[in-house]
């Protein structure tokens, strides 16, 4: 089987879709499935040759803030028949409409991964943007989803929430498992290397946030909540790792300064590869108090490293985490985030070790990327 993954950008700073595409490549290869990517980036963009990336066809640069790339439709019409199926990743960018137009009279089926972009949180939080999307929806995204052989959701919660976004909604739904690959086996060594680059973290009890610095992620809640528990142990330290595309980090640092905990928080920027895995392994817990999170690959990565997770009940896999007792779940508020931090700090050493073990088991049972690859192949064969 040959699959073509169509995505607006391979830049990992844009969030989870490209990471999910990259993570699936190796287990799909093990199943005998080859993958190529076509994107709207400029051909010389550096991310095309990152570790784990298959062949990338970069047709940009794109235009208009919509990733409009005029060569995409002609390229798809010339090349689509080389593939058994085409997978559209994400919504609200030109890549989906291009696939719908290019394959309208083709026998090649296409599928859509919405990656949480139909969550009604966006409608409630950004009503003006939602109005603009609604003006585009009937002739654009509605048709992209309607004509897909299936719209693929990464968990049951995402599937149900998507139905609340637009009343003109007609899709064939499919739900897949999702997750991440097994982390490097030398976790302790990577933790030591990470701490060597961050010597001020030596001997600290690290609460790790690792994601985009973005308002939907609840970063401000975490800073506030951490300030409320910091006096419990002078060794407590919060690491806020991730790219800051909107400049919000400056406001968060000012918030930490005002709360008197600026020296208890580190901002290392985006971490990738060994640095990322080193941070996970050096941490005691992982925190993600998001207001909206479709799946959260970083949550699965933390579990894979045996780290209990402190997440909000707006992370769509919270029920699985709660069922396996692999972390603490609460509301996406300062009070809810504080409660999770306090529950972690109340654990004695044996209780923490038991929860860490349950975190590892939760990953192995639910969130290993191998199952996601198997399920994707099943969906393509069933609906193709």
Secondary structure layout:
Elements: E1 2-7, H1 16-30, E2 34-39, E3 55-58, H2 72-79, E4 85-89, H3 94-102, E5 110-113, H4 120-125, H5 127-136, H6 141-147, E6 150-153, H7 156-162, E7 173-175, H8 187-197, E8 205-210, H9 219-229, E9 236-241, H10 249-259, E10 265-269, H11 273-282, E11 285-288, H12 297-304, E12 309-312, H13 318-323, E13 327-330, H14 334-345, H15 349-367, H16 369-383
Detailed description of the structure:
- 43% of the residues lie in helices and 16% in strands.
- The chain is α/β, with parallel strands linked by helices.
- The protein folds into 2 domains: 2-180 and 369-383, Glycogen Phosphorylase B (Rossmann fold, 3-Layer(aba) Sandwich), CATH 3.40.50.2000; 187-367, Glycogen Phosphorylase B (Rossmann fold), CATH 3.40.50.2000.
- The strands form 2 sheets. It has a 7-stranded parallel β-sheet, sandwiched between helices.
- Strand 4, helix 3 and strand 5 form a beta-alpha-beta unit.
- Helix 1 packs across helix 16 (369-383).
- The longest helix is centred in the last third of the chain and has 19 residues, at 349-367.
- The relative contact order is 0.12.
List keywords for this structure.
single chain; 384 residues; alpha/beta; Rossmann fold; 2 domains; seven-stranded parallel sheet; six-stranded parallel sheet; 13 strands
């Amino acid at each position: 089987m040959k699959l073509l993954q169509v995505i607006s950008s391979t830049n990992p700073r844009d969030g989870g879709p490209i990471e999910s595409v990259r993570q699936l490549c190796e287990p799909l290869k093990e199943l005998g499935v080859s993958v190529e990517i076509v994107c709207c980036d400029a051909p010389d963009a550096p991310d095309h040759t990152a570790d784990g990336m298959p062949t990338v066809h970069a047709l940009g640069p794109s235009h208009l803030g919509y990733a409009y790339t005029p060569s995409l439709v002609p390229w798809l019409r010339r090349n689509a028949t080389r593939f058994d199926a085409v997978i559209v990743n994400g919504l609200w960018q030109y890549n989906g409409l291009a696939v719908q137009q290019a394959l309208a009279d083709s026998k090649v089926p296409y599928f859509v991964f919405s990656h949480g972009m139909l969550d009604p949180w966006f409608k409630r939080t950004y009503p003006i943007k939602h109005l603009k999307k609604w003006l585009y929806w009937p002739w654009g995204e509605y048709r992209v989803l309607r004509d897909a052989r299936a719209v693929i959701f990464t968990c049951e919660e995402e599937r149900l929430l998507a139905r609340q976004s637009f009343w003109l909604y007609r899709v064939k739904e499919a739900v897949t498992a999702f997750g991440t690959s097994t982390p490097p086996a030398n976790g302790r060594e990577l933790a030591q290397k990470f701490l060597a680059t961050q010597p001020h973290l030596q001997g600290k009890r690290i609460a790790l946030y690792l994601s985009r610095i973005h308002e939907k992620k609840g970063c401000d809640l975490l800073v506030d909540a951490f300030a409320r528990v910091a006096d419990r142990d002078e060794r407590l330290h919060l690491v806020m790792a991730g790219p800051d595309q909107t400049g919000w980090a400056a406001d968060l640092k000012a918030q930490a300064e005002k709360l008197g905990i600026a020296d208890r928080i580190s901002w290392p920027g985006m971490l990738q590869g060994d640095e990322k895995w080193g941070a996970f392994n050096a941490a005691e817990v992982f925190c993600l108090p998001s207001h909206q999170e479709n799946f959260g690959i970083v949550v699965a990565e933390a579990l894979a490293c045996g780290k209990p997770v402190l997440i909000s009940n707006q992370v769509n896999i919270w029920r699985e985490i709660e069922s396996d007792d692999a972390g603490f779940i609460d509301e996406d508020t300062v009070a809810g985030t504080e409660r999770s931090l306090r529950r972690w700090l109340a654990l004695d050493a044996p209780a923490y070790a038991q929860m860490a073990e349950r975190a590892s088991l939760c990953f192995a049972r639910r969130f290993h990327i191998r199952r996601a690859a198997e399920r994707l192949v099943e969906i393509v064969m069933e609906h193709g």
